[in-house]
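Forum: Protein Structure Q&A
Topic: Joint prediction for protein chains with partners

I've read a bunch of threads here and the consensus seems to be that you should model interacting components together rather than docking separate models afterwards. I'd like to see that in practice. Below is the full input, 494 residues plus whatever partners are listed. Could one of the regulars post the assembled result?
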Amino acid sequence: MEASSTLAPTPATTLVPPTAGGRSLHRFANPGRFLRIAARAQPWLTGVALAASLVGLGWGLFWAPADWQQGDAVRIMFVHVPAAWLASFGYLALAACSVASLIWRHPLADLAAAEIGPVGAGFTALCLVTGSLWGKPMWGAWWVWDARLTSVLVLFFLYLGHIALVRAFDDPVRGYRAGAILALVGAVNVPIIKFSVDWWNTLHQPASITLTGAPTMAAAMLWPLLMVAIGFQFAFLALVVARLRAAVIERRMRGLLMARAAGA
Amino acid sequence: MNPIMLPAPRIRRMTPASLLARELRLSLRHGADTLAAILFFVLAASLFPLAIGPAPETLGRLAPGIVWVCALLAALLPLDRLFGADLEDGTLDQLLLSGMSPAVIAATKALAHWLTTGLPLLLAASPIAIMLRLPPETVPVLLAGLLPGTAILSLIGTMGAALVLGARRGGVLLPLLVLPLAAPALIFGVGAAEGGEFARAPLLLLAALLAAAIPLCPLAAGAGLRAAAE
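Posted by a regular:
Agreed with the consensus. Here's the joint model:
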């Protein structure tokens, strides 16, 4: 500011140059529509998520019958299994967003991939923690190198790598691009890791501990489980949409500030 | 002034072969960098007897795992500079303008990394394995697994190096990206060395992993290089 005042007065009819802020505003013209739709959808998503989760969890934790073999410990399942489903669903959503981002350079998909990462990692962590809590009474150990636990652990590391990579660049677009490539590589790798871990586990220890050998589930347990799954699914969507809205608004504010700084 | 007819400058196009020759020449001139990874491998592996005791039966049981994990970590060390120096001095831009596809550049770099890190690791692995009291008849199986294994690590590592190019703290980030992806190679490699007469299946699976990694990793790495140079 000091320096500019000593220079020749700028002509009054300066056109505001298309600044970086202006361009990013232009790029987020479409996200503007997203913001309007998301603002209307958000209360519904959050409402369904809370209602279904609370009803399902209450049903599962208090009214559903205890397992004839596992007793009350089986109730951890009502948190654990939906969390595990969402951990895989989250990575699938991440890969889908990455495809959209790499092929169509869709700016909203870039942001969505960046925001799905922490939510998916959160559900993966929930799955691991509840699995550990379930393992203590059932298997007598907090952690067993069971094939499923191990593959979920590797999935958790993949999430963490993606989260760290997306946020490691000064230029956010570079981070989105690298994160999208990594997510796709990870998506190709997830089945390979799953297979290799299954193979490794059968090699190392007898199949005394499998979750697949459980008896088919009674309907009294299945219904609350599905209820919680629906609730968690909506919670996932609600969290991602809320984070996405915040990210779009944040980006837009930064663009406005940059435009103002450039105009001043 | 009589015009001197200068011979037309011979423009030497960069080819994969010349890029490979350049990489190998560079690693020869900076021999200490190449040796550092091998030294790390040897040092890290010799810490294990100190940590778990010198009993031959314990060491022999753990030897394949120790060799594999140490090789995995040692192969990570030079990855940080694989593209880093080229990005800083503009060589990477020149390479990308040379007409070679980014995937070919990445594949050549991966081959150079394998020749300068993977192959020396392979050579250092057998004395280390014998020092760790691995039964001598198991050593060839271990090496047979390490041969495709180190190549897989080079390919995955090249991809990781291309992705973190230009990142803050890229060196810290790299293991976080590469190690989970390398888990299947580790499982099959150690499985082969411990498999006894059933070593054939994991070795074939390792070869399958390599066959999948050879086309896929350079593609992803090339996309990463292009994103880094944008």
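The two ends of chain B are 46 Å apart (CA to CA).
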